[in-house]
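Good day; I would like, with your permission, to put a structural problem before you. What I wish to show you is a protein chain and, alongside it, a tokenised description of its three-dimensional fold. I would ask you to consider whether the tokens describe a fold that such a sequence might reasonably adopt. You will find the record immediately after this paragraph:
***
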Amino acid sequence: MLPMTQSVNRPRVVVIGAGFAGINAAKALAKAPVDITVIDRKNHHTFQPLLYQVALAVLSPAEIASPIRTVLRHAANTEVILGQITGFDLEKRTVRLGDVRLDGFDLPYDYLIVAAGATHAYFGHPEWEELAPGLKTLEDATEIRRRILTAFETAERQGIAHRAALPLNFVVIGAGPTGVELAGAISDIAKEYLTREFRAIDPRQSRIVLLEGGPRVLPAYPADLSASAERQLKQMGVEVRTNAMVTNIEPGIVSVGGERIPAAVILWGAGVSASPLGKMLGVPTDKAGRVIVDPDLTVPGHPEVFVAGDLASVHRNNGQPVPGVAPAAIQMGKFTARQIKNILAGKPREKFEYLDKGSLATIGRSHAIAEFPGNIHISGYFAWLSWLFIHLLFLVGFRNRFLVMIEWAWSYITYNHSARLITDTAEEEEMEKPKQKAG
């Protein structure tokens, strides 16, 4: 696939990553006198805050994702490339694209926006990833859904065959927003949505354990909201254990010091690491791999290279880091687009200032916490309603908003998750291996 022909005397802007930062940068430049190339490994933009709802069968993948080409279809100055970045040459102003199926090529740019996001961090134990998947992509979400639903089905089969079901223990490691969402959603599906659908097991007897190495859950939130979140989790039947540092993970077992906790499913929500593209740029990064940027979000020494979203190491005026959340990435994406417009118009560059519009964390059905400007803290049902409304507002595309609203209403009224499907099971994969060998 070759890039589109560049218009005469129009600079080329290359945007790497179609997450919140990248997609908003591209949309903000849609009417600017530039030619834009958006590059991503996936063909879709994913609304990551709702990934856990795919993982727990509330929503289907298509309801929280939109094809990148569809999102940008009205931008006549924009092309999309499905591809993998394999290198940068900041001096020559080119990015290298590679693909196992196609020949790679060098793509020149006048301005570069790198918004490749983040991935899981296993703190020096990459072997844990296979045993305890994290939640960053649609593929992660469907794999987690498969593991959780299969655990219930396996226990039911065991119960029918031997009249003694396997213990259903779910262990979630890390009590940040992702871990709390997963633990609460597992509690919902076990204790609310599956209660009348099995005969040999009682899903309500499932044990959900949330392990946090620090002293409290949701440590980025104020202490009162953190305490409220822990109370709500416990009310939902989640066993919350703080100051519980995981020392080892093996098949079906999580070790906390000398204690070994059995687990049918182990999930990871303990940490994130910036995309490897940050280090590939060859510029200074912090301990998490985020690129240390100038106040205008550019790379030191390269004012034409911007870094935005989770890949950028940015601090607020009070010295606190800008959180790795969707609103921050959206603001950074729009900011980088505005700086390019300023440069083209001969206007001075600006300093990025994060506008904190508040933070929300959902815990489960009718359970959430919210922090809004003005030191406004709310918990429980009204915080949950706020979370629903704001997430519907930020979803890309009317169709997505409508479908999600319908699914949420149906699920809330009927206690039914319509996306409860098991696909590509491990057993099917094992059964296919002999066939492949025979072929």
